[in-house]
Specification:
- By secondary structure, the protein is α+β, with helices and mostly antiparallel strands.
- The chain is 54% helix and 10% strand.
Length: 427
């Protein structure tokens, strides 16, 4: 692909999205915001208020905050971030927390130091942390993406404000509206590997390491290890599901290993990469072909999430599995039409999976999504696909992706609210 503006944009998108994160990104985003609030305050606060949008609440309720000794929830995330967070590390903000700080976090959780509140906002990803110490008060607001601090005030004086902080779009990220499956395919086939090798090497190394951790130790419900135990470790179709699920087993249950994320999600980052790596090993393809397949997988997932949004009632494992299925078809020398058919086949099958928060069962959803993508891949190799007019499938892949995006971003808004209501109902 010629090094035009589209080429450079795709490189920037990959660099924006394929970043390391320690733990589930929603509690980590809270910890990051709290760490920044303490930093601007210049002292440890006497009290904190943490306001979160519904999707942040949903994705923080059931997942362990890494490096905290199995603590969960909004307050634990914020207190740990304020006590031990290093905001310069962004999504690895809690890397250096120690035992004394963990015990202090537990102590403060038993007090009224931190108050959590529901934030009534049209933004699905929105966090506001207010930290008070004596006469000083700092308010840090984050929205749209997991490190997207848009405004900081100290004693009601604005000390930082991002451009377009109140606008409908996120100007801090490269525009993704130009993406198409065709252009992604051409880019993956022709990209200079030296432009992406460092990103992909880290994705391979980090995500394989946490998957192997999940397979060799007891985490969560053990979805990945159960697949290996019951079906063996010789079949790529099983290994692809098991590795992706095992990474999620570990990550959702407090494993301290980082992952390289996709679309703001570690689970999606593992789902777009680990099945592709498993198949590349089985097929014994070159490193270059694996890199190109991973470029395809990552960008196909990002393309779909652009239509959906970072957080919704629609399970992101579906978009990520579409990416890995498309990349597996590429590894088998499938052409553009077969890659499009793989995506269509996957979307026609499992677009109804809902997101009911980050928690151990995400591993099972990942396994199911990868299984569907593999079936979609084998159908495509045999030139079999679902057709326009069958459910949400349209006459071309871009219109199909748009229809799924409309379902997820618009049609499932009420579903999202009902999920949150059910999850926070104590009865």
């Amino acid at each position: 692909m010629q090094r035009d503006s589209k080429y450079e944009k795709m490189i920037r998108i990959l660099r924006e999205e394929l970043v390391p994160a320690l733990g589930c990104t929603e509690p980590i985003a809270i910890a990051y915001t709290a760490a920044k609030a303490r930093e601007v305050l210049g002292a440890f606060p006497e009290r904190m208020v943490v306001e979160c949008s519904g999707n942040i609440i949903k994705n923080t309720k059931g997942v362990i905050v890494p490096n905290t000794g199995n603590l969960r929830g909004i307050k634990a995330s914020a207190i740990a971030g304020a006590l031990a967070g290093d905001s310069s590390k962004k999504l690895e903000v809690l890397t250096a927390i120690n035992d004394e700080q963990i015990e202090k976090t537990r102590e403060l959780l038993r007090s009224d130091f931190c108050v959590e509140k529901y934030l009534d906002t049209p933004e699905v990803l929105h966090i506001v942390v207010t930290a008070v110490n004596r006469q000083d008060a700092v308010r840090v607001e984050l929205k749209k993406h997991h490190t997207g601090i848009v405004r900081i005030t100290k004693n009601d004086e604005v000390v930082f404000e991002a451009e377009g902080a109140d606008g409908p779009s996120d100007d801090s990220l490269t525009d993704r509206g130009f993406l198409s499956v065709r252009d992604i395919y051409e880019f993956a086939r022709t990209v200079d590997i030296s432009d992406v090798r460092d990103l992909l090497d880290k994705q391979i190394t980090y995500n394989l390491r946490i998957a192997e951790e999940g397979l060799s130790h007891s985490y969560g419900a053990g979805v990945g290890s159960t697949l290996i135990k019951e079906f063996g470790d010789k079949d790529a179709k099983i290994l692809a599901r098991a590795y992706a699920a095992a990474g999620s087993d570990a990550r959702m249950s407090g494993c301290v290993l980082p992952v390289v994320i996709n679309s703001g999600s570690g689970n999606q980052g593992m789902t777009v990469s680990l099945p592709v790596i498993v198949y590349a090993r089985m097929l014994k393809v070159s490193d270059e072909k694996l890199y190109r397949a991973l470029v395809l997988s990552n960008l196909v997932a990002i393309h779909q999430k652009t239509k959906i949004g970072r957080l919704s009632a629609y399970c992101g494992a579906v978009s990520a599995a579409c990416g890995s299925g498309a990349a597996i078809t590429y590894l088998y020398d499938g052409d553009l039409e077969q890659i499009e058919q793989t995506i269509t086949n996957t979307l026609a099958n499992i677009s109804g999976i809902v997101c009911d928060g980050a928690k151990p069962s995400c591993a099972a959803k990942i396994s199911s999504a990868v299984d569907a993508a593999i079936m979609g891949h084998y159908m495509a190799l045999n030139h079999k696909t679902f057709h326009a007019g069958e459910g949400l499938v349209k006459e071309d892949i871009e219109k199909t992706i748009q229809s799924i995006g409309r379902l997820a971003s618009q049609g499932m808004k009420e579903t999202d609210q009902e999920i949150l209501s059910i999850m926070t109902d104590n009865q």
